[in-house]
């Protein structure tokens, strides 16, 4: 199928892009890597008046590590996240999760900004942002704002981003660089996760001082699980299993064609336990667990 007719624009500066977005209103969409948008256009699930290409807008592909966080431009590809040395040093959880996004051809084109703007509830980047106390930076003709990941994802394909705003960058906290874990179940390599779990901890004197457990594929948006986080901080000798049980027991997952709610509960347990063990064992903790 061919896409419906639309006007194509390729602005060369950010102010030009924001001006076009402001004038075109909510009938316009921006094009990043096209890995989600082009199928939607071809299947006529989207029929925008304008498609505004981000490719020529400078400054959207930077990666900077400073002030306790890694700032990643919206147009940075999944593949670059897998290979960038700043990401590897300061946000290794992000580097690891990048390798689970689709397959290589998707990762070569798809972008982190496109993924969070698209807000698929099974996507990897939203839970990495949640686990690393991340934020999404947005720009419009009205100015700039930063929205905490906790407040950004509202529902399936729905975020706090307003129609005239563009995602300019994401920031990932680097406090969690030494204790993290990521695990997901996908039916085939390259598929979206049925359930994915990101765990990040701050360790003090060998104990878990703070924990984040973020889960994808279980609700209409990525969720954090405070019960599992509390189990990790409680620090029993079976903390990873306790966290996994707390996640399984506190979340009522969705059912869909990829898996029933009860199947997802089992996946929540298994993936949380694996990700938590990975995070704890990096620091010599949790050795009796699993
Ligand atoms: C076969 C296949 C398998 C995949 N598997 C996975 C997977 O396992 N995990 C996963 O997370 N994703 C997966 N994806 C999706 C992939 O990650 C896409 O890269 C991502 O969802 C969208 O990024 P994009 O750069 O291609 O955005 P586009 O397709 O260009 O845009 C997607 C949406 O976001 C909007 N948008 C894009 N950039 C911005 C911006 N900077 N500001 C505001 N709005 C913006 C667009 O207007 C559009 O509505 C898969 C895709 C395919 C085709």
Could you explain the architecture of this structure?
The strands form four sheets. This protein has a five-stranded antiparallel beta sheet with strand order 4-5-10-6-7. The chain has a four-stranded antiparallel beta sheet with strand order 11-12-13-14, sandwiched between helices. A three-stranded parallel beta sheet has the order 1-3-2, covered by helices on one side. It contains twelve helices and 14 strands. It is α+β, with helices and mostly antiparallel strands. Strand 8 (153-155) and strand 9 form a beta hairpin. Among the domains are: 7-53, Uridine Diphospho-n-acetylenolpyruvylglucosamine Reductase, domain 2 (2-Layer Sandwich), CATH 3.30.43; 180-281, CO dehydrogenase flavoprotein, C-terminal domain (Enolase-like, domain 1, 2-Layer Sandwich). The chain starts with 6 loop residues before the first strand and ends in a 9-residue tail after the last helix. Bound molecules: flavin-adenine dinucleotide (FAD). Flavin-adenine dinucleotide is lined by residues 29-37, 54, 74, 101-102, 106, 110-111, 113-115, 117-118, 123-124, 166-167, 190, 192.
CATH architecture of the domain at 180-281: 2-Layer Sandwich
Approximately how much beta-strand content do the residues carry?
Answer: 25-35%
Number of helices: 12
Poorly predicted tracts of residues? none
- CATH homologous superfamily descriptor of the domain at 180-281: CO dehydrogenase flavoprotein, C-terminal domain
Distance between the termini: 49 Å
Please state the CA-atom Rg, rounded to the nearest Å: 19 Å
Query: What integer is the average pLDDT?
Result: 95
What is the CATH T-level topology of the domain at 180-281?
Enolase-like, domain 1
The top-level CATH class of the domain at 180-281 is: Alpha Beta
Q: What profile does the largest beta sheet have?
A: 5 strands, antiparallel
User: Into which percent range does the helicity of residues fall?
Assistant: 25-40%
The coarse silhouette is globular
Bound molecules: flavin-adenine dinucleotide
């Amino acid at each position: 199928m061919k896409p419906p007719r639309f006007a194509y624009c390729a602005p060369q500066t950010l102010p030009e892009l924001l001006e076009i977005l402001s004038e075109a209103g909510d009938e316009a969409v921006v094009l990043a890597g096209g890995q989600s948008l082009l199928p939607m256009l071809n299947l006529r699930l989207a029929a925008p008046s304008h498609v505004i290409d981000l490719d020529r807008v400078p400054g959207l592909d930077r990666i900077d590590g400073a002030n306790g966080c890694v700032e990643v431009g919206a147009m940075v590809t999944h593949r670059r996240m897998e290979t960038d040395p700043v990401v590897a040093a300061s946000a290794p959880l992000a580097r690891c999760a990048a390798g689970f996004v689709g397959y290589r051809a998707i990762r070569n084109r798809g972008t982190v900004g496109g993924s969070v703007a698209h807000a698929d509830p099974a996507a990897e980047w939203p839970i990495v942002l949640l686990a690393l106390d991340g934020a999404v930076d947005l720009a419009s003709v009205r100015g700039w704002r930063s929205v905490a990941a906790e407040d950004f994802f509202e529902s399936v394909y729905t975020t706090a981003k307003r129609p005239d705003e563009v995602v300019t960058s994401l920031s990932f906290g680097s406090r969690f660089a030494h204790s993290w874990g990521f695990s997901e179940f996908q039916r085939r390599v390259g598929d979206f996760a049925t359930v994915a779990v990101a765990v990040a901890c701050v360790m003090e004197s060998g104990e878990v001082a703070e924990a984040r457990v973020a889960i994808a594929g279980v609700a209409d948006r990525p969720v954090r699980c405070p019960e599992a986080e509390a189990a990790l901080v409680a620090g029993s000798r079976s903390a990873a299993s306790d966290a996994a049980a707390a996640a399984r027991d506190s979340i009522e997952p969705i059912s869909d064609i990829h898996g029933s709610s009860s199947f997802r509960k089992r996946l929540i347990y298994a993936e949380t336990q694996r990700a938590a063990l990975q995070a704890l064992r990096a620091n010599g903790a949790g050795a009796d667990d699993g």
